[in-house]
Design goal:
By secondary structure, the protein is an all-alpha fold. The chain is built from 21 helices and 2 strands. The C terminus is likely disordered.
Length: 504
């Protein structure tokens, strides 16, 4: 009954005309961001955070807008995957394996509709799971002390690379770099400056919004410059879009199985939508009777990964809201938004700010219906947007990044710092170093240090206190396994090679 009461509270806020308008705008913009190759949900949300602040949105309005962008981008990634054989973002990569062959067979419309419905099923079921599981997990989190939280943060760092990282050492180096950046500024205990090098602007530390926009958005601009915005034109024409009821009936099992697998993958810190999509595809292929048709245009090979990556997107919100630990790169950016709004994610969030949590859940349910309606009849609109030339897109992304950050800080130093982080992100991309652990280190570094210091004070300097409870021990074990397992399992979980663009 508590859930129904809270859900009623959430819908009373979410159904207001202004909130509905923000959700609609977020869904539309997110779908465009997801469809444009290379941008993805992390970049989209990072770009729009400064804009949401400059427009004076409160906590609920900003969350509704940006989570709608998040869900919309997860939907949109399938469009370029199917039509261009270019994943809009990494989670949409598996969709190319059967989506693009379907498009070449003249079934582009069917592939887009099936993937849109699968995205809806995965995201909707994940939102229901969020509604049911998040309050339960928040009650468990009340048992967490400094030792448990430190172990939990360590687990997030160790697992964030996962099977998606090509090199665990590089993931560890990125996490250490992020933690080092988090230490810049005044020490909370002693009041002494750390790593400021005499620069007064660094006394307050690094603004994580500056770092996020630089690492995600500005680095993408540098990448666009390097590649000259190639692969930005549509190669396949769409005919009349109709609903393939027969194919939808054949793929409903794949959608449900993919949703379940993706949701579990999303809950695990660091697993994220990429792993959810990959596991959903491989699981569907393993249970299918027509295994040989996968990779040649099987609709189940489109439905399963799309349901998986969208379900993972919803599942990733659970650890972020209940524990303050992001389950993916995009939820790490959303975590930065919450912290900026002076909202501390964790078990107390559900009791102290129920209107924020439940209006968010209600808005996500509404946004999913909006996205389904938007992504089936209006898919031709988004397809045309894919032909936007890079010389138009590039200045737009740059302008939004600079104006957004300057409107927040009013500091020219932060502008230069954002460019520096953009260069760092570009270098990391060239060296195949993941940037998400850097962001995670900047976001969680101070909290991790604070919990370590509290643990040492409570234990009088006894390091074994960090292993003093079954919860903390289980987190330590999971962290070690999560970091080491990909080294041994990568040969078995190797992602299939993507066909080249234009391959027949």
């Amino acid at each position: 009954m508590d859930i129904l009461t809270n859900l009623e509270l959430g819908f009373s806020i979410a159904l207001s005309p202004y909130t509905l308008m923000l959700a609609l705008i977020g869904c539309f913009v997110g779908t465009i961001i997801g469809a444009l190759p290379g941008l993805g949900p992390s970049n989209g949300v990072a770009l729009l955070i400064p804009i949401s602040f400059s427009m004076g949105f409160d906590a609920i309005e900003a969350l509704v807008l940006l989570t709608s962008v998040y869900y919309g981008a997860m939907y949109g990634g399938r469009i370029s995957s199917i039509l261009l054989n270019i994943p809009g973002d990494e989670p949409a990569m598996m969709t190319t394996l059967d989506g693009y062959p379907m498009a070449k067979q003249g079934k582009a419309g069917d592939a887009l509709v099936v993937s849109g419905v699968a995205s809806f099923v995965g995201a909707f079921l994940a939102t229901i799971g969020l509604m049911l599981l998040a309050p339960m997990l928040s009650r468990v989190a009340f048992q967490f002390g400094p030792a448990e939280y430190f172990a939990l943060y360590l687990l997030a760092f160790c697992t964030l690379g996962g099977v998606g990282s090509n090199n665990q050492a590089k993931s560890a180096m990125a996490a250490c770099l992020g933690l080092g950046i988090a230490m810049i500024g005044l020490d909370k205990t002693t009041g002494m400056p750390r790593f400021t090098f005499g620069e007064l602007h660094l006394m307050d530390g690094i603004d994580f919004l500056v770092a996020i926009v630089g690492l995600f958005a500005v680095s993408e601009v540098f990448h666009f410059i390097e590649t000259h915005g190639k692969d930005s034109a549509i190669g396949i024409k769409l005919g009349k879009i109709s609903i393939p009821w027969k194919i939808l009936g054949q793929t409903k099992g794949a959608m449900l199985r993919g949703s379940g697998i993706g949701f579990v993958a999303g809950i695990l810190p660091g697993a994220g939508a990429s792993l959810g999509s990959f596991l959903a595809y491989m699981a569907e292929k393993s249970v299918a009777k027509d295994k040989a048709t996968f990779g040649t245009g099987n609709p189940k090979g489109v439905a399963a990964p799309e349901a998986g990556n969208n379900a993972a997107a919803g599942g990733a919100l659970i650890p972020m809201l209940t524990l303050g630990v992001p389950g993916s790169g995009t939820t790490a950016v959303l975590l930065a938004l919450l912290l900026t709004l002076n909202i501390t994610p964790g078990p107390l969030l559900f009791s102290e700010r129920p209107e924020v949590v439940w209006s968010l859940i209600a808005s996500l349910l509404i946004a999913n219906i909006m996205l389904l309606i938007m992504n089936v009849p209006m898919v031709k609109v988004f397809v045309r947007i894919l032909s936007v030339p890079s010389w138009v897109l590039l200045p737009g992304v740059t302008m939004v990044a600079f104006v957004g950050i300057y409107s927040l800080t009013g500091s020219s130093f932060d502008m230069l710092l954002m460019v520096a982080f953009g260069v760092l992100g570009y270098i990391c991309r060239k060296l195949d170093i993941p940037t998400v652990p850097i962001i995670l280190g900047i976001l969680l570094g101070n909290a991790m240090e604070d919990n370590l210091r509290r643990a040492m004070v409570l234990s009088d300097g006894d390091w074994m206190y960090l292993l003093s409870s079954p919860i903390s021990i289980s987190f330590w074990v999971a962290a070690v396994l999560g970091f080491a397992a990909p080294v041994f399992l990568r040969q078995f979980l190797r992602k299939p090679a993507l066909p080249t663009i234009g391959e027949n």
